[in-house]
Amino acid sequence: MGLLDQQFSDGNIVITKSEDLLNWARLSSIWQLSFGLACCAIEMMATSASHYDFDRFGVIPRPSPRQADVILISGTVTLKMATRIKRLYEQMPDPKYIISMGSCSNCGGPYWEHGYHVLKGIDRVIPVDVYVPGCPPRPEALLEGLLKLQEKIRNERLRKTA
Under a CB-based contact definition with an 8 Å cutoff, are residues 73 and 122 in contact? Predict the structure, then answer.
């Protein structure tokens, strides 16, 4: 234990890198834009309710993509809705993240084989950061997906290296 460690061990001083501080602030206050399209939206709403309390992780619902950090896409995405989702994604400020919730938004679900209008996964239109599997996934699975996203944000580099 050096002199520097002894000097700061009794006070209320924290020494960290600015990048770690900014990543901590971003992962502790994630503003979400919910895009619920089908039955998975019910589970997404249950996750936001008092029993699972999505808010305790710093997730705050926002009505506009211009204020959101993450879009939670849940349910069957049709080709017509895919253009709207892409437009919402383009309106978000950087850095932006996508959580795809449920089999339908992940890969088309049970409807992709017989539905000409169903998109075979939202990742064909926009990049997805976290996939939450299930049909429909339980609220615990969505919470785990959020924790995976927070871990991704924690390990991000703010400056691109060559």
Answer: yes
Strand, coil or helix: 72? strand
C-alpha closest to that of 59 among 149, 158, 140, 157: 149
How is the beta sheet containing 70-74 ordered, strand by strand?
59-61, 30-36, 70-74, 97-101, 130-132
108 vs 86: CA distance, rounded Å = 17
- Nearest partner of 100 among 58, 78, 65, 129, judged by Cα: 129
Average pLDDT over residues 49-78: 85
Mean pLDDT score, 55-83: 87
Tokens at 7, concatenated: 């000097």
Write the Ramachandran bin of 156: left for phi over 0, alpha for psi from -120 to 50, otherwise beta.
beta
CA dihedral sign of residues 62, 68, 74, 79: positive
- Angstrom CA distances, 107 to 11, 78, 103, 129, stand at 52, 12, 6, 14
Strands 30-36 and 59-61: parallel
Q: Give 126's pLDDT tier (boundaries 50, 70, 90).
A: very high
